[in-house]
Amino acid sequence: MLVIEDCSNIHENPELINSPQFWMETWRAANEKSHFARQRPDADIFNYWGRMADIFEQISRQGRHKLRADKAINLLGKEKFNLKGKKVLDIGCGIGDLSLDFAAKGAAVTALEPAAPLLEKLKDKIAKNNITGIRTLHKEWKQANLEGAIENKSFDLAFASLNPGLRSPEALEAMAASSRGYCLFCDVAANSSHSPARSNLWKEIFFEEIPLAYYSIILPYGYLYSSGCQPNLEIWTERWGETLPTEKAISNALDFFSLYKEPDKTLQQTIENYFAGNSVNGFYSEEYSVNLGLIMWKAG
């Protein structure tokens, strides 16, 4: 086994690139430096995501998930993987856009989601459209594994898209263990930028630049590559604009920063002042750009 004493001089130790242990430790270090590690210990992240249900519904109506679905289906097509009749696990399905896309291709989907308001959005669509190809599971991924709700090698495809709960080597391994076939994993790639409002407000609230997104898709890719999984990787950029009523923008920002700081009057006032000074006629607009990556590999 390769013993890693110092990962800081990788240019002097290029053999580290081929070590799963190196990628595992680098991945963990990246998580520790990410702004996610700064969240309050008592922050209820699932309630936070649940309060985003209406925002995700609006995003769904814009069809922004379609590109991810198309790229996933195209990658599977290159492996001659036909979704019809296959068992698919969607880990952290949100309001279920991608579960619905897979089910429309004939897959039998288990849609797992810990935030109840998000799962209710999917259940409503299933009921209204008489969809029979999706089974919902209201559980957190780690809980589902510990309780045996997800059996090893019980799916033909395990899928996860932009799921913060899978940003660790252990979670990725558990995801792979659930599949007897393929895995698809979508997450942010390098050089993705934060929301301008979040970046500026972070500086005002914490008197520092917002921590960089040290985590990126290259970490799970490197871990899988060095483990001999021969993963495929596709990277692309998505751009969109958003305009919200100023009050809604304030509410969203207060929700986000409450994960990191007690939501007292000072925090609320700072946020209100920022959006008041950057809104026009009662509306706040932003442009977003994010780099995404999609990994596919054979698990079974």
Summarize the structure.
With 300 residues, the protein is an alpha/beta fold. The protein is built from 12 helices and 7 strands.
Q: Mind sketching the topology for me?
A:
Elements: H1 20-33, H2 45-50, H3 53-61, H4 66-78, E1 87-91, H5 97-104, E2 108-112, H6 116-128, E3 134-137, H7 141-146, E4 155-161, H8 169-177, E5 179-188, H9 196-206, H10 218-226, E6 232-245, H11 246-257, H12 265-278, E7 283-298
Parallel strand pairs: 1-2, 1-4, 2-3, 4-5
Antiparallel strand pairs: 5-7, 6-7
Which terms summarize this structure?
alpha/beta; Rossmann fold; 7 strands
Please describe what this structure looks like.
The protein has one domain: Vaccinia Virus protein VP39 (Rossmann fold). The longest helix has 14 residues, at 20-33. The protein has 300 residues and is α/β, with parallel strands linked by helices. The model is unreliable at 1-6 (pLDDT under 50). It has helices spanning 20-33, 45-50, 53-61, 66-78, 97-104, 116-128, 141-146, 169-177, 196-206, 218-226, 246-257, 265-278; strands spanning 87-91, 108-112, 134-137, 155-161, 179-188, 232-245, 283-298. It starts with 19 loop residues before the first helix and ends with a strand. A seven-stranded mixed β-sheet has the order 3-2-1-4-5-7-6, with helices on both faces.
What is the gyration radius calculated from CA atoms? 20 Å
Quickly count the domains.
1
Strand order, sheet with most strands: 3-2-1-4-5-7-6
Given helix and strand content, the structural type is alpha/beta
Shape: globular
Task: Name the beta content range.
Answer: 15-25%
Low-confidence stretches: 1-6
In percent, how helical is the residue content? Answer: 40-55%
Main beta sheet, described? Answer: 7 strands, mixed
CATH topology: Rossmann fold
End-to-end Cα distance: 25 Å
Give the mean pLDDT. Answer: 90
CATH class: Alpha Beta
Q: Number of DSSP strands?
A: 7
Topology order in helix (H) and strand (E) letters = HHHHEHEHEHEHEHHEHHE
Q: So how many helices?
A: 12
CATH architecture: 3-Layer(aba) Sandwich
CATH superfamily: Vaccinia Virus protein VP39
